[in-house]
User: What shape does this take?
Amino acid sequence: SLGEAKYDGWQHYLQTASERATVEQFNSQLTAQSAPMSLAVADALVEVLSVELQRSRLEYREYRLAAGATDAYANQGLADRQRYLELMREGNRRVHDAMAGSMTALQLERLHTMLERTLAPAEAALRIDSARN
Assistant: This one.
């Protein structure tokens, strides 16, 4: 029914709040460089980011459970950090590839930069763990 469709749309809107905020901030940067995304491209990026976030969470959870972890999300050391970073990089590549046909060269370049920045915390944690071992 129409009521259910609206409710589902509202739930999706709430579930993608983080991705929408990221895309809004990213588009503000592009606008300052005279290269804003269209609404359709921004919406597509929100969807791609949302799908990739869900996918990476599921893949990491499956990895941890296959390793015999009782807590699928608790980081258990260097190998976990390395796998998590690999999954993030793979997801970033998929986001970039998914948007390649919709964005200008400048927008794609900036997207790549933004996605690379998302890796910084995981890379820092990996360096710290590596130094300890």
About this structure: The helical segments are 2-15, 17-32, 39-66, 78-99, 105-118, 120-132. The chain has six helices and no strands. The longest helix spans residues 39-66. The radius of gyration is 17 Å.
